[in-house]
């Protein structure tokens, strides 16, 4: 490639920018702890996965074989027999949510979609694009859906085919809607299993819950009809991507034969990224289940550490079970801007993604949040540490050692 000197400088500048900020992220769930250098050489090819990876395609430069293995992995992980499932590598959580909602609407064209007010903003776009009737349901203070309000709204609408958009980890509070309670309540209301659809938005927590000891229910075995996960969140990817898994018989309803590519099309976009299935494949092939588990444990421990430190500093921080999202009252706008915090109303959060190998970034933010919220507590803390008191709050390296946490 020939670029002018000026353009080369621009790229060099952006390279420095990327190097400097690669681990900046503490307010968003993108994990930067990955190494896909083994795949870099494939960037010179126009790999395209248009169509269905399980069929033959005339477009020879596809990575279907890799996508097939990725989907087998997630079918196993989300407890659905491979032969009963179908899914694909998407452009991200939003496309996966859209795919799930699309299947639901084809099944129940007049059904109303119910989602809690804590649901990711993508749902608003999706119901508009798909022209699905929808109803926002109240959220509980934890961020879970208000089950009473859900059932009250279904009853008030006289809805016989509800489409339930369940959060498996909300964006702001990491809350998991209890799909066991939802299913029980629907059954109690006289709505049979075949008469509703249950989609699970597991953008972040879909790669956390499979690796904890006591997960909330979230799999096909627990009753879902489809699920999506973002690939660039807990797994980590240089290119945004995701995974969606659904029931094969529901997907068959939307399949279209396309003679142009000599394959059937079930996916939302036409041409599909051929590199991201390889990225997901490499991530899954290079980490054992024990390694994912360790990684999740480390992130959960860091989240609890942040809760403890903030609470000790007088800040009302908390987190949901099995969540790496630490919720606390919104700090001043300066701090929110400096740390790139995502805030909503009077709430902020930090997310202890796996690239926070030590607690340096977490500590820096917490120090400022405490100083901002409770200056008197902060002064007292500093005084104690100046006096060399053993009460000094636990710090990065020593805390990591104490918790027995090494590199992933
Ligand atoms: C991030 C997120 C999404 C959207 O995922 P993208 O990969 O950004 O499209 C959807 N739902 C939840 C709960 C999320 O956190």
Describe it:
It catalyses: L-histidine + H(+) = histamine + CO2. Homotetramer. It holds the Pfam family Pyridoxal_deC. Belongs to the group II decarboxylase family. The structure is a single chain. This protein is α/β, with parallel strands linked by helices. The protein has 2 domains: 37-285, Aspartate Aminotransferase, domain 2; 289-373, Alpha-Beta Complex (Aspartate Aminotransferase, domain 1), CATH 3.90.1150.10. It has 14 helices and 12 strands. It has helices at residues 5-21, 64-77, 93-107, 122-130, 147-157, 179-188, 231-235, 248-252, 275-285, 289-312, 333-338, 360-373, 375-386, 396-402, and strands at residues 85-90, 112-116, 133-137, 163-167, 197-201, 226-230, 242-247, 256-258, 263-265, 325-329, 343-344, 347-351. The longest helix is centred in the C-terminal third of the chain and has 24 residues, at 289-312. The protein starts with a helix and ends in a 6-residue tail after the last helix. Residues 389-408 have low confidence and may be disordered. The site of pyridoxal-5'-phosphate has 16 residues, from helix 3.
């Amino acid at each position: 490639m020939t670029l002018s000197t000026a353009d080369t400088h621009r790229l060099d500048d952006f390279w420095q920018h990327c190097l400097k900020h690669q681990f900046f992220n503490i307010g968003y769930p993108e994990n930067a702890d990955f190494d896909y250098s083994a795949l870099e050489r494939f960037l010179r090819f126009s790999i395209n996965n248009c169509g269905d990876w399980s069929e033959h395609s005339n477009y020879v430069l596809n990575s279907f074989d890799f996508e097939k293995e990725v989907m087998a992995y997630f079918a196993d992980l989300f407890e659905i027999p491979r032969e009963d499932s179908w899914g694909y590598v998407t452009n991200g959580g939003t496309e996966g949510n859209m795919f799930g909602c699309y299947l639901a609407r084809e099944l129940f064209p007049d059904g109303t979609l119910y989602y809690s007010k804590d649901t990711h903003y993508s749902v608003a776009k999706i119901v508009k694009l798909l022209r699905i009737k929808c109803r926002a349901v109240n959220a509980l203070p934890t961020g879970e859906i208000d089950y009473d309000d859900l059932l009250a709204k279904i009853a008030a609408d006289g809805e016989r085919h509800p489409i339930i958009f369940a959060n498996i980890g909300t964006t702001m509070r990491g809350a998991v809607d209890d799909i066991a309670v939802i299913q029980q309540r629907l059954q109690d209301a006289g709505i049979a299993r075949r008469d509703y659809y249950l989609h699970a938005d597991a953008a972040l927590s879909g790669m956390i819950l499979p690796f904890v000891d006591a997960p909330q229910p979230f799999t096909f075995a627990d009753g879902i009809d489809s699920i999506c996960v973002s690939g660039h969140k807990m797994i980590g990817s240089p290119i945004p991507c995701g995974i969606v898994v659904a029931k094969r018989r529901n997907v068959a309803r939307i399949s279209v034969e396309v003679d142009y590519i000599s394959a059937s099309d079930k996916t939302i976009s036409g041409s599909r990224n051929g590199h991201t299935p390889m990225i997901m494949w490499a991530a899954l092939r290079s980490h054992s289940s024990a390694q994912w588990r360790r990684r999740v444990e480390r992130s959960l421990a860091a989240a609890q550490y942040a809760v403890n430190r903030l609470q000790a500093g007088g800040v009302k921080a908390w987190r949901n079970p099995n969540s790496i999202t630490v919720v606390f009252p919104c700090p001043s706008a300066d701090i929110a801007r400096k740390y790139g915090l995502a805030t909503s109303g009077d709430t902020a959060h930090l997310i202890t993604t796996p690239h926070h190998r030590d607690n340096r970034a977490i500590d820096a933010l917490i120090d400022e949040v405490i100083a901002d919220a409770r200056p008197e507590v902060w002064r007292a803390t500093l005084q104690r540490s100046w006096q060399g008191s053993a009460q000094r709050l636990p710090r990065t390296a020593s805390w990591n050692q104490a918790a027995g946490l090494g590199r992933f």
